[in-house]
Amino acid sequence: MNRLLAKTRVAATLTTLLLCQTLPYVSAAADEPGAAQKLAGPADYGLSNSVSIALGGNEQGYGLKHISNLKDGLTTVETIDGVAARSLRLDGTRTTLNFYFQIEPGFKEKDLGNVRFEIEYLAPQLGTLGIHYDAMDSDTVKNARYREASVQITLQGSRDWKKATFHTRGDAIFSNRQNGRADFRIWAKTPVLHIRQVTVTREASLDEKWNNQFSGTNQVTVLLGQEKPDEEGLRYVTQGGHATPELLGGVPCRHLDRTREGRMFASIYFAISPGFKRQGLKNARVDIEYLAKPETAFRLQYDAMEGDTRRLYKPLLPAGAKVMRFGTGADYATIPNPGVWSTATFHLTNGVFANSQRDGADFRLEVLPPEIYLRRVTVTREDAAPAIRPTSP
Known about the structure:
single chain, seven-stranded antiparallel beta sheet, Jelly Rolls, 393 residues
């Protein structure tokens, strides 16, 4: 059945793309930066899995429009080394560049809570790049109309065209509530940015991404380095992940090592099955099997409530850990047995676990220096967390 549905969706997508190629568009001319692209004929984008727009020159949008006449997003068509694109530069007192986009209503008729944004861009100078999308209103989101996507990209400054990928956090509504009735905007803090292609792709909901619901079990586990995502109720979040599968002394595991990048710390992210959480997961025990070098320290950060305040990255140290405190006031646990496989146990309370961390994760292990081996992570339901506290420095 799943294969039949998949084939049907593929066929529908191909049919829509062929139809799109025959539809004429009215494009914004280089000397008319205020005109957004408009469909000259009808198209059923409800059958498609993605919409896109090629910017610059003879612009073509297939279910996606660029709004170029807004005061804080007045883009122009430019040609960079023979490549046409939309461009924007900082001027006056502005500190942020904004590119606004609107999604064709037909594409939004089906659930768009989870989508993937893909951008082709050129950023010749240093800066930061991200996406704000129109999300559901929530007490935990400061400004839902401009919800930050899953991750921000650091711009290194390059004359090469690059691609960046962003994801919504499962709460997108795209109700045209941004400036100019836009659904999302690409923002950047850099002196100049060129964009030549933008694509929005529908992704499966969190429940659809898990074949089994795990609602009848008290525990979920992931074996790092030999993951079986279709069978496990706990997943290592591979998207944007930097922990590579390895065999260490014949033991399958994942190895996180970002020391060569000059980073002080790094994180490994995990997501819990929605079905496992549906029965309630306010308190839980997380056991992490690891191997690390001397002078390594870590802490777990999870999506939780702290009193009346929602904290997406609430810090927690393992039971009985010795605390190492940094000058910033951040506490980490020093590992007691370097060079051997060990288990750290964390008791989580008042958890929310709404996939609100990066790339839809529920919790992460933050490590410094950023190198560690992990072979197993287990989450177990608890009625109440034991009153075991770390050892003060």
